[in-house]
Amino acid sequence: MEASAAAAASEGGRSRRAATSGRAEGATSASAGGGMGTEVAGWRVPPVLVPVLVLALGAAVRGGPGPVTCGSVVKLLNVRHNVRLHSHDVRYGSGSGQQSVTGVSAADDGNSYWRVRGRTAAVCERGTPVRCGQAIRLTHLGTGRNLHSHRFASPLSGNQEVSAFGEAGEGDYLDDWTVVCSGTYWARDGEVRFQHASTDVFLSVTGEQYGRPIHGQKEVHGMAASSQNNYWKVMEGIFMQPSEVFKAERYHAEL
Q1: Do residues 190 and 180 touch, judged by C-beta distance below 8 A?
Q2: Alpha helix locations (H) across the chain?
Q3: What is the pTM of this model?
């Protein structure tokens, strides 16, 4: 298991220009599962074809009425700072040294797709609506690593580091995030928060900006306090149709 060691993040890691290391943004990402490609809504494809396939399946469709379901592939927008949750094969130069997670302003960026899955060691069947209060994983489509957090300091703000961790979609219990929302289900057109299941921090953006090699991207981190910096909304994506069980529940609720 990972060490709980925020002190391991060096003071030098707080530098805006030396916050990350690895290949520059734009280099070809390493594929999930050792070059076997990544999975888009159930199909395994080479990483270079992921954006093409996502577009072909209707990635331009925005969130609307209805629930977010397991198996859906989505882009998530931080409402306050207008950046989409993003990752890439660039590692932090401090803290854990794991794959970095950032926020980008470009709506058409191909590295901002995340697949909605059940929590660690649990199965959430494709098409099952995600309930408010449910723990899930968000798996980065391009690299197969899961949204993750742990007690390391983030490079710029010194809040809790958020990274992408694991291989081929499998990491550990620190990949689990609870969907915090009102109502019964996570609605496509609603604003939600993601609270880390193990450390209780909220997935947040507060505006700190990186220098090279990912110039202009915003730091994404975990914050202990709930605030307007924590709210996210589904934007573009492929949405799996709700299961028959959900349809039956709605039918009986309307009677």
Answers
A1: no
A2: 32-35, 50-56, 244-254
A3: 0.77
Please state the separation of Cα 68 from the chain's center in Å. Answer: 14
Distance CA 85, CA 93 (A): 20
CA–chain centroid gap for 122, Å, is 18
Cβ-Cβ contacts under 8 Å for 45 (sequence gap 6 or more): 37, 38, 39, 53
Name the percent of the chain in helix, strand, coil, to the closest 5: 15, 35, 50
By C-alpha distance, which of 227, 94, 103 is closest to 154?
Answer: 94
Beta-bridge partners for 43? 40
Strand partners, 148: 163
Average pLDDT over residues 193-197: 98
β-bridge partners, 246: none
Q: Which residues of 39-69 are buried (b: 16+ CB within 10 A; e: fewer)?
A: bbbeeebebeebbebbeeeebeeebeebbbb
3-state secondary structure of 29: coil
pLDDT, tens digit, 9 for 90 and up, residues 217-242: 999 999 999 999 999 999 999 999 88
Side chain identity, residue 85: L
What angle (nearest 5°) sits at the alpha carbon of residue 68, between those of residues 64 and 73?
95
DSSP secondary structure code for residue 49 in this structure: G
